Amino acid sequence: MIRLAIALLALAALAVLPRFVSEYELGLLIGMASYVALASAWALFSGHTHYISLATVAFYGTGAYTVAVLNESLPYPAVLLCAALIGAAMALLVGLSTLRLSGIYFVIFTFGLAELVRQLITWYEVSITGTLGRYIFLDLTARDIYWQMLALAAIAIGLTAWINRTRLGLALRAIGDDEVVAAHSGIHLARTKLVAFTISATLITLVGAVGSPRWVYVEPLIVFNPTVSFLTVIMALLGGANRLWGPLVGAIPLFLLFEWLSVNFPDTYPIFLGLMFIAVVFVLPNGVLAGLDDLRAWLGRRGK
Amino acid sequence: MTLLHVDTVSRFFGGLKAVDQVSFEMESGTIMGLLGPNGSGKTTLLNLISGFLAPSSGKIIFNGRNLAGARVDKIARAGIARTFQLVRILPSLTLLENVMLPAVFGHRAHWGKEAERVAHAALQKTGLGDRANASAGDLNYIDQKRLELARALAAEPELLLLDEWLAGLNPTELQEGIRLIESLSGSGITIIMVEHIMEAVRALCPRCAVMNAGRLIADGETSTVLSDKAVIAAYLGDAEYA
User: Fold this and answer.
1) Within an 8 Å CB–CB cutoff, is residue A177 touching chain B?
2) Given CB atoms, is A81 within the 8 Å cutoff of chain B?
3) d(CA B126, CA B12)
4) Where does the record place the ABC transporter domain (chain B) (predicted)?
5) Residue B21 is inside which H or E element, if any?
């Protein structure tokens, strides 16, 4: 109860923050909220199951593109609803065909998926509609977008906390440890993974949709940038993908770091991204939070 | 009442007949030893019954329903639980969570307090009751074996498949293990145990069946089966006894 109260207070404080910051800082806040939402939503499925999905940008880009296509013909809430439905439908389709794959094959497939979706949309735009780029003109301020993104991040974390207490959460953790044992305990593997993957992908699609007005001009090469997928994975892993607050702990510092790097080293910053990825996997395979626990246990033993 | 009827079940891997036209029945509440040299198809047979593998042909009728080729989780929910020859526990979960799984998702599908009660009872039975909140990854080999059995028991199964559960125990632990299986059998659970330890088979199983090269070569009263010439030949090699 106390934890929930602290979390809600923090959320309220974050919600009034735009009053006190500049336009540039508000942009940073939106970026942070986006990546906290992305990393948390990603971890909702991948954190416990250990199925590393590189399809984040496939859903993120689809969300952005849905807004680009529909923003002039439908009211904004309906556009968001469409984006969520399209994301969920895509996740179900992808899930049904891939969740029987294990380990590395799943990783490769999800990576290919993002590219496939991008190429399909490019082909459709060029050969059917005859345009490639699209403009998004919505009557939304940066503050509106920030509040929506903050709400998405809160929903992603809240939903994860709730799932962790349910049968679904227990089943996902069992699957992450040993699918054979999970199945022999009576868990329907395909259905369990499909449900979690779809929830996760729908949230990611919404992050893309909500953030899209910031782009103004949208084309496949921009919104299907694979860096989004990699950043999401590194952030979640850095904080600890199987911890409730892990993705948040990883996302905020890494977002600020990459923002700084991309401003100061625009040409070389992808190198840092790669090095970071390697470092996280080698040094902190279970994330910062687990690392702190280990350190505390080690200090405790030394103290005795 | 017949609980399990394995009816001319076969499983081929390419040209290899791992299980070849095996048939037997088991009455509810009985216990049977399943013997045979390494590679004779015992574990494959357990895998076919638990659904880990699908039979190439034949029927596996459990409680009147043919489960041959059904999904593993469906078979588990039907009331069949097992342990594995190479111990499989969920290392990042606590002991209680390990055991909660089948209580929650298995045969009876409990949730909340009732699931915890069933899980705690299973841990108590296997002597792990006071370590419910320890991490399963920290257990030593014997306790991992206990945990695996506790997990199978928490499913409240009608049929329990034990794959060399007694292997690797020291003499004291072996006696404890035998007493534990005896009490399970006494509580009405039907048990098939694959076992190499003859002492345990003699002590626990009035009936045993023997496999060799995929076929069931003997099935009957344990003392009769163990003195059967074909069985001795299968274990010790044909040259001396055939």
Assistant:
1) yes
2) no
3) 36
4) 4-238
5) strand B16-27
